[in-house]
Amino acid sequence: MINATESEEREYLEEIKEKLTLAIRRVDDAVKQFSDELRQKKQYIHEHQSGMDEADMVAAGQSINRMAFTGEGAVARKRRLLKLGQSPYFGRLDFAPPGQGSTPVYIGVYSFFEEQQRQNLIYDWRAPISSMFYDFELGAAAYTTPSGTIEGTIERKRQYKIRDGRLEFLLDSAVNIHDDVLQQELAKSSDDKMKNIVATIQRDQNAVIRNETAPVMIIQGVAGSGKTSIALHRIAFLLYRYRETIRAKDVLIISPNKVFADYISNVLPELGEEHIPELGMEELAADLLGNRYRFQTFFEQVSALLERPDPAFIERIRFKSSAEFLSKLNQYLLHVENHYFTAAELRVGGTVVPRQLLLDKFKAYHRVPILKRFALIADDVRAFVRDAVRRKLTGREKAAIGEGIPRMLKFNQVLDFYRDFYRWVGQPRLLRLDHPLQLEYADVFALIYLHLRLEGLASYDHVKHLLVDEMQDYTPVQYAVLSRLFHCRKTILGDVSQTVNPYSASSAETIERVFPQAEVVKLYRSYRSTVEITAFAQRITPNPHLIPLDRHGPAPAVVGYNSPGEELTALRQLIADFKSSGQHSLGLICKTLAQAEHAQEALQAPGVYLLTEESTAFKEGVIITTAHLAKGLEFDAVVVPFASAQTYTTEVDRSMLYVACTRAMHQLTLTYVGELTPILAG
Ligand SMILES: Nc1ncnc2c1ncn2[C@@H]1O[C@H](COP(=O)(O)OP(=O)(O)OP(=O)(O)O)[C@@H](O)[C@H]1O
């Protein structure tokens, strides 16, 4: 058996590191050579410019670009090799095909192909053979390659922790991923950015990451089940698997806000992939609507619900977030198609264009959005009139046609159709348009949907994979828009229990109605929080299916104070305790922005940051923010201040409290004055 003992492994590690160092040197030499050649080439062009024609210049430019491109490739390769030098591999499996001896397969974040021996010394975790590391225990195993399935036996599985080039431990395991290693990973203090989990991906997670068949994959997973992590690893996997056709810039992440985007921005580069473009829903909306409308943001909608819940406002949101609303919009569009075009005879000079001709044309173009159809019909009508009069048409005649046809449709503006829709469903009071025109958030995507259907909008065909996080926050109409704009494969993930607006929350089932071809995966194991914190959060929103990982810590503390002054003193103390605790991040998570601002003012201290809707980066230290913004993030310790009966009463408040508490990895404290919120007392 190769490298059986620990000392052999240590020796082997040194050997690998040496080979990596050599490989880095070779890249350096190559880079140097490239830049020398590049310089020479540029010099040459400079000197011979006068004697070169345009074609020569283009050719020279291209060759420079090619060299620079190869140079960039070399720089990226060097970056990967340096990273491997720090931690070359984390796993090993000894795999024996039938009737053959076993060879060790070392698995790392990237692959390392040693050019001199022409041998793959480290396999990328995404390589087909590496899948067995996540999927099998000792004994019979198999993996699938593009050319077929390979069966055999796993004779050994080993896990390593190598940091800064030093082997910290090595562990033989019979099971798939040794629980101790996972426990160690989870017990660590949080970083300011999300990290990769390649060394401890679980079997069910691996199945999601490596799924190649689902056109739409919907992941509904409990808080802390690794949804976001898995989705990012899935992107990394797909970029590897389809590296010939998909590049990082062809993927798009729809993310809830800039802070979240910053928080996850580290994972893919850590996995050797470039940064992935991301876009917020509001940015997408602004992109689509141009500057035709001003509209409320999702944050503003949720703040309004938290600060002054108005039943009429809630009713409007509820209606527009239902699957029924989408089907009513579709019925309305059919109604428009069938009843709103009133064809009438059109007189152009002395020629009469018969009503039937106009109607036939209108129907013939039924695949073209209605407001785009007139131009096509007008072309045909012009041809018809030209044939009749046997001459070119005058400007006046052309105008008569161009203006006459649109007049046959009841409305020509999308907003007029949208207003009319509410009359048609018999609910005119469900539309509130403020003056000057400002749309409520719930109307934004409904209106975009009508624009799409009535006028058509350019689709995002350059995007080859779409990732939607926090899926519960988007409504059926939003999904209908996404489905029409993005024709690529999609990964959609979230958790209904973590909605910040229960009146507009979508479950996996709701979303599946928009994407009937979707594969739905549910994840119930929760990795983030200790058993104690998870049990506490379950009191707020129970989920009988949730399985917490068996990791323990202090019980959450709920502490009442006599006055706001006392509560603030206690919060100051909690911050001081945190600073001397060795933990990295503390989240003070409030219900509203007003409370967060108040806390920030009262608790001002160095290293205490207020995170708002406008923030763009997630920092380590003490963060004061709202539950809405904290969604998707995690902290070593969380403090939920002002947890009184006054603050947390409604269903929206319950969601906020749940989101806030489930952000904690190791420690959770709630403070209040007066009466404790009934959500916890009950
Ligand atoms: N297989 C794993 N190995 C190590 N850590 C893991 C694993 N799966 C998840 N985690 C950790 O669990 C935590 C939660 O993961 P993540 O944020 O991806 O979950 P989520 O389901 O998106 O959470 P939420 O919906 O509550 O925001 C992270 O710290 C992540 O690193």
From TrEMBL:
Keyword Hydrolase: yes
Entries under SUPFAM superfamilies matching the protein: P-loop containing nucleoside triphosphate hydrolases
GO cellular component terms, semicolon-separated: cytosol
Binding site for ATP: G221, V222, A223, G224, S225, G226, K227, T228
Keywords for this protein: ATP-binding, Helicase, Hydrolase, Nucleotide-binding
GO function terms (MF aspect): 3'-5' DNA helicase activity; ATP binding; DNA binding; hydrolase activity
One Pfam family here: UvrD-helicase
Protein's name in the database: Helicase
Natural source organism: Hymenobacter wooponensis
